[in-house]
UniProtKB/TrEMBL annotation:
UniProt name for this protein: SDR family oxidoreductase
UniProt entry keywords in alphabetical sequence: Oxidoreductase
Signal peptide range: none
Keyword flag Transmembrane helix: no
InterPro entries named in the record: NAD(P)-bd_dom_sf (IPR036291), SDR_fam (IPR002347)
Top-level taxon: Bacteria
Keyword Oxidoreductase: yes
Amino acid sequence: MKSNQRSEARPVALVTGGARRIGRAIALELAANGWDVALHYRHSAQQADATVEELRALGAQAFAFRAELGDAAELEGLLPAVVERHGRVDAVVNNASLFEHDDVASFTAEVALRHFNANVTPAIVLARALHQHVRSQGCGGCVVNLLDQKLWNSNPDHLSYTLSKAALEAASKLLAQALAPALRVCGVAPGVTLPSGPMSEQEFAQAHRMTPLERSSTPQDVASAVRFLLESPAMTGSTLLVDGGQHLSPQPRDVLFLVRQQK
């Protein structure tokens, strides 16, 4: 009886970093296609509230949840808080990410650990918590981790960030093995999607065209790929590269530096 009631209700997805940018696009895509959304944020309270209103306007039950994912207690408490408010969780989209530039010359253990604790640890802890939850309910679930096409087209810029995303890609496969059959774990690897760091709008426009398709990913492209994986019960342990083919074109440096070299 419990499983029948669960299947008739709207599924619930927890989207980390869901208040703005790509996370917001993912939340909106899910809300528009039959999902309720638990929207995690850290500092963006006003943006989170505004996004929640947009989600509700699309017919979703949506609530915002503040948590510092680098704090062990707050991280461990996030999924139980979502379950308490929504009554269930069916999916976690690990979108929140730290992206700081370093290279071999500027690398420090502190910077590397900060990236690992932001980009890898939360994904593992939340996957474990979701696995425990869906098993207790006698149903299945899915985790989607946001990766980066850079892992298939390596360059030494953003060293600590890249290492953390490489660890997350490996963790996705390991989690897919460890948590099956109750939980599926997949990845989406975007390309140049939005301006970041010191990149200007003009530089972004140039970088966005540096792919075989002469366009890289948009937030909507990424959001559609995430929904596809969440709704594809035969997929686990795989990653979709959504990057306009950027991973097919070797690039010796990050696109920001390549664009600036063209000036």
